Amino acid sequence: MNPILECYGLTKSYNKMYNALNNLNLSLERGQIIGLLGPNGSGKTTFIKLINDVLVPTSGEIRINGMAPGVETKKLISYLPERTYLDETMKVKEIITYFSDFYDNFSSERAYQMLDDLQIDTKARLKTLSKGTKEKVQLILVMSRDANLYVLDEPIGGVDPAARDYILSTILNNYNEDAAILISTHLIHDIENILDRVLFIKQGQLVLNATVGEIRTEQGKSVDTLFREVFRC
Amino acid sequence: MLKKLIKYDMKSLNHFLPVLHLFVLLTAILIRLFITGRINPETSNEQIDVLFLLFFILYFTTITALTTGTYLLAGVRFYKNMFTDEGYLTKTLPVTSGTHLLSKTITGSIWAVINMFFVYLCTYIVSWTPFIRSIVSSDEQEILKELGATGEYADLSFSAAFTVLFIFSCLGAVSSVIMIYASVALGQLFSSHRVLGAVVSYFVISTVISVLSFVFMALFGHETRLLITTASSAGDNFNFISYMTEVMKISTVLMAIASVALYSMTYYIMNKKINLI
Questions:
Q1: How would you list the strands of the sheet with A205-211, edge to edge?
Q2: Would you list the domain boundaries of chain B?
Q3: Which of A148, B15, B92, B193 could form a disulfide with A76 if both were Cys (CB 3.0 to 4.6 A apart)?
Q4: Over the stretch B145-179, which tens digit does the pLDDT of each residue have?
Q5: CATH architecture of A5-230
Q6: Phi then psi for A24, rounded to 5 degrees?
Q7: How far is A92 from chain B (nearest CA, A)?
């Protein structure tokens, strides 16, 4: 089976002086939860945007299931950006219909179940919900798809610890071995236990690509400790 | 997917535009009832002047606001849905950029044409009073003849002229929607102040099109001032209908060329150049 994600010499610059992402080469297999870790401005979000075709690379290539970003790859990827991307005038149930209309692999039943678990009113308009609740709604929508690659940019940053546990268990329960999950976050300690692999990005370059097991056995450290060492200010 | 996109785009535009248009329709009815409908042969000339001025200012302001509002809302929907935070969802739907553009163009055009229909309907309501109708119907043939309905245009009626004018206006409305979207897309090529970039782009495109129209009209000998001067010096009567027909023909061709070019440019930008930041 193809790797779910491949990059060759992937570079993105926003101006001539600075590359947000610099010659990134990478191949990721399915069936794993991957932490995309790095300090602010290291290029994590740029990488995620390139995967999702909301940015155009300056040079290099990116392949999702062997295909360049486009309509077919968008069917495979379920993307949670780090911002509210829904039309806030819509009601929660209307947004579910919207996702159901456009994504063949979206399960309305699963979405309603999760909304019910988190006691979110489906008749409420998004603009009337708190920031944390909006984030929960977005994550529920994203995790209600049977995607091949879930790309989650800071999925737990704005929610309370109780909801965080629910979200992490949701992530674990809703993905299968044909899928991979790429999570970008600063809250390493909270998600370390669910990660299979970590990617450290520094100044737009990959500085580490290893399994959590390798880090623990070979270096005798937790991912959190290693992160603090590598990115010490 | 196109049908689904159109459904959601129409739904979004339908939040405001029907209310706006019904409000203007109501204003037109009120103008007819309280201003233009009161002009009759017994009204003194001074009163007619004041009423006419009042009607003109009120009506022109309302219609301009309605048309501007319609295009503005279509442009804002395009911008917000494609290039702001909402764009992160829109752009990651399994739909091509071309389909997004087509959906937005269709929905924007539908509302632009509806708007044009309302403009004509409101103009009819406020101006086609019994007094005006009696003047026009008694002298219809004479008025048409004065405007140039002779020779090949001898069979022309007011209704036929308005139908042609309405179709031409609708084409212009669709062309305007395409131009607004092109401006918004061009604004996205700026590294910052993208809304300002879109506004600047709009004025640049309008100016270029105006200059090109002027050049083309002049090339075909239909530049207004030139034509009237030439006609007057030659001692001929200026035929308004013939002149307008020629102008509309050339404008339609120009509009079609500009629209195809701007649509293609917008498609290219959306497909190859968009970076959501």
A1: A77-80, A149-153, A180-184, A33-37, A197-202, A205-211
A2: 1-84+108-130, 139-277
A3: A148
A4: 777 666 666 666 777 777 888 888 888 999 999 99
A5: 3-Layer(aba) Sandwich (3.40)
A6: -85, 125
A7: 15
